[in-house]
Amino acid sequence: NAGVMQNPRHLVRRRGQEARLRCSPMKGHSHVYWYRQLPEEGLKFMVYLQKENIIDESGMPKERFSAEFPKEGPSILRIQQVVRGDSAAYFCASSSTGREQFFGPGTRLTVL
Amino acid sequence: GENVGLHLPTLSVQEGDNSIINCAYSNSASDYFIWYKQESGKGPQFIIDIRSNMDKRQGQRVTVLLNKTVKHLSLQIAATQPGDSAVYFCAENGESGNTPLVFGKGTRLSVIA
């Protein structure tokens, strides 16, 4: 039973480029959450999705950031026109109940 | 606003001793709490959880205590081992479930061999 999968594990982008982060939840999990973590800090919630629906995006910046969780395929977190301040670790978590959340290994985004 | 925070940012313990990591929360409506362990370069790993209708829950070498009166949560690790070295986060879940976790800043546990 594979855990939460995220790819790529490391992503380097230049300012102005687009970053696409992918998350495949655990089998049977329909709840997906995206969190962002800066060095030496806790995780900060960004967006919560269920299949084809955004449930809560209160933690996501209103510009340049978007997320989706299509009926088929992984959840995608997209960051357009990246800036240096977007450099962080982005974690995805999945849940079957909306309670216990299991995290993936994260994608470390570096913006040059 | 709601806040989940930790009392001690770093903790050093001798191998074999017990460790206690503390956490304070301010949202009295929270009814579910989780402790995560995060090793360098990895995602948070679920350790143990507790619901607000419980005061104590035990796992393998770990115990979580919940004091709702003072809104305090602690994680006890028995016979701490070098492999326990990591950053530990407490997180709370909103009163209705299906809500995002609110994380504290974390406590770094260093085990001295």
Beta-strand content of chain A = over 45%
Residue stretches of chain B low in confidence (pLDDT < 50, at least 5 long) are: none
Largest sheet of chain A: 7 strands, mixed
Ends apart, CA distance between termini of chain A: 37 Å
Largest interface: A-B, 27 and 22 residues
Give a short overview:
The complex is a heterodimer of chains A (112) and B (113). Chain A is mainly β and 112 residues long. In chain A, 0% of the residues lie in helices and 50% in strands.
Strand-helix topology:
The complex is a heterodimer of chains A (112) and B (113).
Chain A: E1 5-7, E2 10-13, E3 19-24, E4 31-37, E5 43-50, E6 53-56, E7 65-68, E8 75-79, E9 88-95, E10 102-103, E11 107-111
Parallel strand pairs in A: 2-11
Antiparallel strand pairs in A: 1-3, 3-8, 4-5, 4-9, 5-6, 7-8, 9-10, 9-11
Chain B: E1 4-5, E2 10-14, E3 19-25, E4 32-38, E5 45-51, E6 56-58, E7 62-67, E8 72-77, E9 86-93, E10 102-103, E11 107-112
Parallel strand pairs in B: 2-11
Antiparallel strand pairs in B: 1-3, 3-8, 4-5, 4-9, 6-7, 7-8, 9-10, 9-11
General description of the model:
The complex is a heterodimer of chains A (112) and B (113). Chain A is mainly beta. Chain A is 0% helix and 50% strand. Chain A is built from no helices and 11 strands. In chain A, strands 2, 4, 5, 6, 9, 10 and 11 form a 7-stranded mixed β-sheet that branches. A 4-stranded antiparallel β-sheet of chain A has the order 1-3-8-7, with no helix packed on it. The mean pLDDT of chain A is 93. Chain B is mostly beta strands and 113 residues long. Chain B has no helices and 11 strands. Chain B has strands at 4-5, 10-14, 19-25, 32-38, 45-51, 56-58, 62-67, 72-77, 86-93, 102-103, 107-112. In chain B, strands 2, 4, 5, 9, 10 and 11 form a 6-stranded mixed β-sheet that branches. In chain B, strands 1-3-8-7-6 form a 5-stranded antiparallel β-sheet, with no helix packed on it. Chain B is globular. The termini of chain B are far apart. The model of chain B has no long low-confidence stretch (mean pLDDT 88). Chains A and B meet through strand 4, strand 5 and strand 10 of A and strand 4, strand 5, strand 9 and strand 10 of B.
